[in-house]
Design a protein that fits this description.
The structure is a homodimer of 427-residue chains. With 427 residues, chain A is α/β, with parallel strands linked by helices. Chain A is 33% helix and 15% strand. Chain A has a 7-stranded mixed β-sheet with strand order 3-9-8-7-6-4-5. In chain A, strands 10-13-16-15 form a 4-stranded antiparallel β-sheet, with helices on one face. In chain A, strand 4, helix 7 and strand 5 form a beta-alpha-beta unit. The longest helix of chain A has 21 residues. The radius of gyration of chain A is 22 Å and the shape is globular. The termini of chain A are close together. Chains A and B meet through helix 4, strand 2, helix 6, helix 7 and helix 9 of A and helix 4, strand 2, helix 6, helix 7 and helix 9 of B. Strand 2 of chain A pairs antiparallel with strand 2 of chain B, so a sheet runs across the interface. Chains A, B: Keywords: Aminotransferase, Pyridoxal phosphate, Transferase.
Chain lengths: 427, 427
């Protein structure tokens, strides 16, 4: 059982922080400060969103390297999306997922020379297929698997693969706001001549080729998404990082041409730097492979072998329950964690009028057979009466990410609910 | 003891292949065919080097994904630079380098939040510093360590870090021919607005900012290199992938501002996808870190932990010889392997007038105290009377890489001598 004390304690702090009278007064007295951490200097505070957003995206600025406040004590870091919530479950699994790698393994660049993605470890491919079949969240038949150093690298690989190589101008890349805050940065940081960030998909009206990123469930607001541009010359990339049953009902297997997944959000192993793409078109899969060859000559085989083991144990925990204790089926455990955290957060927010959270309609999950409303990894918090929600919360030592980074206004902020880690269970 | 039979057998084939009378006649009768493998379609055969090289670099073409001929039997693949020569040594080391990773490790994105490169595992950093101190091949004091998914990623990180962000045109990137064949491809594949390949450093005469890649020992010709442009507005990147004592005498610790190393070429673990940079300037190190965050949000921690273990065992094999059998000191063993292979190759080449190999002067290695001539991982073979050396050898089922890819003429070809793997020793 999760030790609630630590996480509930965090929400008590939030609840105190949400005491409108005390804190709003302090804020208006200008006591807030702003600091940058493991993110790019944005340099803008209470200014016009559009112009500052463009400046933020276009300008490549030094990375601040001050230690995050979480290392300094007394601060809640809900910004970074570090999925440390999962650590306790994997500790409790003990040796089931331990991997032993001898020194003579993985000398070669090559994993399987017969495969299109020749640096994809077959064990990892098999584990992916098994897990998708079990969960029912994606079609794998007739798809090429391309492995990447996180779905971050795969996103870039897709852009490379589907951009026309000889076009007179870069192809536009769009996503409906609020969009994942890293998309503009990743798209534009090298000022590629092949592709260029073109902002909010809902405002894209040009009769030109485009690439639309459809993130579903969406980061940051957890909404189930579909394409919005719907013109003839578009190619869609479906980022399904959160389409797992701890976050959202699995209504049907996703069946798109290009689908991205990541270990970080499924099992929590963000440090592994591993993602995979399911790709229908062979030429696109080949070009994605080409990108990864040019970028990093493949992907860590150690990460792949370890992920293979972990994904198999996830599947085993559901398919071979006799080998696991009660409550250890991975997606059940993770669902329960997220459910508790969302309840605590909603309870805290309901105590005042200062904030709102999204409401999600209930749906039936074909995997768990449970009817529930989405409980995303990020909470998309809206401040009703505060112009800059992120600064307001920062003043009260709660680190979040401003809605500006997601193409929305500054009165939104995201809270990452899959961290921090719950305390270890009492032994 | 290396089983010579297999590798000597390869050189017997080469020796036969080098029988000038028989083979030159066959080649001139037009029986040769050309095929592409794990490399980009180059489409050009016996044509003007300059124009076709530019076309090759500028045009992004689909990656051929046919299995390399090595998988088809009866063919010697000396193209790919796959360092499988090292596998037998690591098998013989047995459990010394076995790494055990529990399932709860590496959940977090963060390795050390106090470090500039916050995804660098401290164990790996310590192992790097220890090894450089032992071998004496690089100064580490006062340097920031940046870890990357191979030196390939670090090369791109450096380009990003040192390119002016707001220049009116991309900064020129040059290297003296023959240069590493991947440099032009990696520099230009995204058509970045920040940097652009500008070819042979010896021909660079513009009075503008530039970046010069100095690879030493050089790939492909094994020569010890220094900068050649020597203008005021240049920044140097030193690629020291092969500056290890199995390949070349260690004359002094390299002491440059930006130095790149890779596990692939030091211990042979190419599948690990791991490299490191030693960087003097903090701002450059920060921006390199920023690149890797945007590109892949860090580097596989599994690879780092494994590399830490392996590098420590390499150092132990020299510093704690009592724990190892005779002949197991890693760099001694690897030096002997390379020495044998170069002797076999030179013996084969000397039997005819069709080919030449570079000569290297002897130098004293401060690490091994041995005087020897360089024995690079790649042999830079010149065909005296054949215009297209790579096609000629390919006809005789020896896969090499044409000199054209290195900015030289087609009568050169590279042979990778750190593969294939020697057969296991008789038990």
């Amino acid at each position: 059982m999760e030790t609630r004390t630590m996480f509930l304690g965090h929400f008590l702090v939030i609840s105190l922080a949400l005491n409108a009278g005390l804190l709003y007064r302090d804020y208006c007295n200008g006591k807030h400060k702003s600091q940058d951490f493991f993110f790019f200097n944005n340099g803008f505070k209470n200014a016009s969103l559009a112009s500052k957003r463009d400046a933020h995206v276009a300008k490549r600025t030094p990375l601040e390297t001050k230690a995050p406040l979480k290392a300094l004590g007394g601060v809640i870091d809900l910004d970074h999306g570090d999925p440390t919530m999962y650590e306790r479950y994997w500790r409790e699994m003990g040796d089931k997922t331990t991997v032993l790698i001898p020194g003579w393994k993985f000398i070669s660049y090559f994993s399987d020379v017969r495969s299109l993605c020749w640096f994809l470890e077959p064990e990892f491919a098999n584990a992916i297929i098994r897990l998708h079949k079990l969960v029912g969240n994606a079609v794998t038949e007739g798809r090429y698997i391309v492995v990447g150093t996180g779905s971050t690298q795969l996103f870039q690989a897709v852009l490379y693969a589907i951009s026309p190589p000889d076009a007179s101008e870069p192809i536009s890349v769009v996503s409906a706001a609020p969009f994942y805050s890293s998309y503009p940065l990743i798209t534009d940081f090298l000022k590629s001549g092949l592709y260029k960030w073109a902002g909010d998909a809902r405002k894209f009206k040009k009769d030109k080729p485009y690439i639309e990123l459809v993130t579903s469930p969406n980061n940051p607001d957890g909404v189930t998404r579909e394409a919005v541009v719907n013109q003839n010359q578009g190619i869609l990339i479906h980022d399904l990082a959160y389409y797992w049953p701890q976050y959202t009902p699995i209504s049907s297997p996703a069946d798109h041409d290009i689908m991205l997944f990541t270990v970080s959000k499924s099992t929590g192993h963000a440090g592994m730097r591993l993602g995979w793409a399911l790709v229908r078109d062979q030429e696109i899969a080949k070009k994605m492979t080409e990108f990864i060859v040019l970028s990093t000559i493949g992907v860590s085989k150690e990460s792949q072998i370890r992920a293979a083991k972990i994904l198999q144990v996830v599947a085993d925990s559901h398919e071979h329950r006799g080998n696991f204790k009660e409550g250890e089926a991975f997606f059940e455990h993770s669902y329960n964690l997220m459910a508790k955290r969302w309840k605590q957060l909603r309870d805290a927010v309901e105590k005042n009028d200062l904030f709102t959270l999204p409401d999600f309609s209930r749906g039936t999950c074909n995997f768990s057979q449970r009817a529930f409303a989405s409980q995303p990894a990020f909470a998309w918090l809206k401040c009703r009466e505060v112009e800059d929600c992120e600064s307001f919360l920062r003043y009260h030592k709660i680190i979040t990410r401003s809605g500006r980074h997601f193409g929305e206004s500054a009165n939104y902020a995201t809270l990452h609910l899959a961290s921090p880690s719950p305390s270890p269970s009492p032994s």
